[in-house]
Backbone:
């Protein structure tokens, strides 16, 4: 996870799309395909693929409260950090930096498993406990991007279309084929896997295999590849709306406490 966070910093530091794509492509090639697929989902700006209807259901105020509990920082310091950055993840980095461990062993697979666990957990208190345990082990930079993934906005000038371009570049596949596969699958990670295996033309067959039982799609096909992009579009709309709401609530909570 530390490498992913460092990559995000480098991507955010450049305004050139070609450099962003080159950095991503190099990163994807350096990973095992399974890890690269997980990273692609996170880099697209969410905890889950676009097709996946699950949500973490952890609000911005709850995230900010966790940061305060972990750091022991007083409210004025937290408020000042948020006002300075205007972004929950970046503000958390500032207050966590003095106390966070310098190194961690959090992997992409572990982070995905923890997101799965949080999504399956019902109570807000249990969700917060799981996330707090994770953040206590994370470096400040890891925590910054874990929180950004949770809120649904990385804010590093990276769109899903650039992730598609990077996949095409990394695995020497036509960009149009990568885009078409992601459009069909609604899963940037699944698309990366097919690109790495040079099987992008299988996307249509995979989607067709989900239409069973009188035309009703299953939630997943036998290979674990997801639903149709039609579902993904609705998911993306909800994701961006939820991200804005989380950010607004976090800011409101911080400023309200300051009063």
Residues:
């Amino acid at each position: 996870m530390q490498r992913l966070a460092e990559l995000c910093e480098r991507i955010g530091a450049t305004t050139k799309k070609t450099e962003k794509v080159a950095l991503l492509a190099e990163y994807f090639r350096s990973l095992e395909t399974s890890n690269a697929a997980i990273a692609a989902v996170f880099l697209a700006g969410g905890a889950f693929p676009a097709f996946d209807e699950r949500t973490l259901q952890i609000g911005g105020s709850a995230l900010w409260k966790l940061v305060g509990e972990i750091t022991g920082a007083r409210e004025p310091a937290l408020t000042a950090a948020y006002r300075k950055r205007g972004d929950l993840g970046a503000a958390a980095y500032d207050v966590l930096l003095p106390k966070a461990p310098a190194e961690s062993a959090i992997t992409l697979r572990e982070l995905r498993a923890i997101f799965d666990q949080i999504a399956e957990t019902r109570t807000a208190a249990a969700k917060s406990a799981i996330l707090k345990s994770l953040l206590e082990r994370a470096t400040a930079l890891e925590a910054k991007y874990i929180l950004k993934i949770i809120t649904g906005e990385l804010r590093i000038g990276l769109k899903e279309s650039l992730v598609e371009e990077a996949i095409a570049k990394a695995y020497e596949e036509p960009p149009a084929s990568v885009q078409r596969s992601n459009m069909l699958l609604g899963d940037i990670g699944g698309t990366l896997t097919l690109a790495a295996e040079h099987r992008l033309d299988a996307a249509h067959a995979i989607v067709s295999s989900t239409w069973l039982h009188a035309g009703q799609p299953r939630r997943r096909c036998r290979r674990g590849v997801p639903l149709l992009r039609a579902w993904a579009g609705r998911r993306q709309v909800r994701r961006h709306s939820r991200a804005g709401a989380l950010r607004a609530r976090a800011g409101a909570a911080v400023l309200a406490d300051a009063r």
Q: What stands out?
A: Strands lie at 211-212, 216-217. The two ends are 36 Å apart (CA to CA). Residues 229-258 form the longest helix (30 residues). The longest strand covers residues 211-212.
